[in-house]
Amino acid sequence: MSLAVDADRIFLERIRRIGAEVAAVHADAVDYDARFPEEAIAALREDGALSAFIPTQHGGAGVSINALARACYELGRRCSSTAMIFAMHQIQVATVVRHLDGGWFEEYLRRVVNEQRLIASVTSEIGTGGDMGRSIAPITPDGDGFAIEKQAPTVSYGAYADDLFTTARRSPQSEQGDQAVVLHHREQTELEATGTWDTIGMRGTCSPGFTVRAHFDFEQILPAPFATVMHDTHVPVSHILWSHVWLGIATEAFERGRAFVRAAARRNPGAPVPAAHSLSRVMPELTMMRAEVEAALADFVAFSEDPDRPDLATLTSVLRFNNLKLAASEQAPRVCTGVLEVIGIAAYKNDSPYGVGRQLRDSLSARLMVANERIHSVDAGLLMIAKEV
Amino acid sequence: MAGTHDTQIRAVLRDHARLRVDVGTLGTDADLFAAGMSSHASVNVMLALEDTFDIEFPDAMLKRSVFESIAAIDAAVSELAPAA
Lengths: 389, 84
Hints:
heterodimer; A: four-stranded antiparallel beta sheet; 11 helices; 7 strands; B: mainly alpha; Non-ribosomal Peptide Synthetase Peptidyl Carrier Protein, Chain A; 3 helices
């Protein structure tokens, strides 16, 4: 127990240091130039942070999901793109860790530890209407191995990843919902960019569309069906880690608001600070967001205690973690906008210490990464059938 | 062997599951999701089953594995409506 707590504490101390000394320093340049946050990712690699969640028996640091989520929050305060890349990578790691069945994937986790390999995901596909639970491209037999060709509308940091985590129909005969996950290496993959990534926010995630062509061996197909993987791990962990990134972004905007009102108070000691009053109105918006984000994490930890994880397989669980995503993604820009109004023009300026433009723009991506409208339509059905929500 | 609620379950599936095959040709253990039932359609199947058998599936039973085949649905319905 104390060893695990130590691993968490050491991990988070290092993450905070990388956040402050590396990610924060380059965050504006990453945003301005829409470039990959190479310095921060290099620092995370050097620190072994990319394999932190891998259990000690597979060579990793074995940090808890709580620590991982906290790390996403800490990085989110400093550089949203770094934080989101870190979060997405860890979602792939967590999926492999939680659905491991020995063999190739166990060996693969050791490579992630030793080589600090960065994993991108190719889960979205043109033609599925944003439904990650369906695939069009199949896994096809190809020579002595297998192949995929998939049209992906966005692949975050695809051009910078060492490996890709791709969903596909299990075979050319399979239904769209009968999916498998393939973990293929960059050198087994051809990435043809089909667009650009000049966006209003999350610019450093470098997420253009790609045609992804890969050739791989049978053992690189995760044995667990994606339908199970999705409920047990991929969706809840995505929503938990993303929402911690968004909480970090919203908290940073709020802290800039606090810095602003403190400076105003120091200029005229004793005089009332109207902006502080306005900031007080924003605070419940932030704390409600924090409460939902932290409660969802606690639920996920509780739901994961039973090794068979029966609670995560229920539709109520789908509803629960969908709600987290909806609530957090809509609340983060609300907090940023609230702070913008508190500070005024100094927050609207890009070159001001009180600027919250980057946070506001980055937070607006939250409602679009798996579009909230799509999640609402899923929830609409689940609300009819769930008994307790 | 067909379970006790086989006919009614097949009728519900015919109306709501949107399978790509005729439900009459499916074995009781056939995977309904592999036969084309989407997650969205499965929710409609659950609602129709509750209506047909006048039961309520508790949250713990609202999961993919409970609705993945006619046999699995039959077991669930039998558990909730033993008299039917």
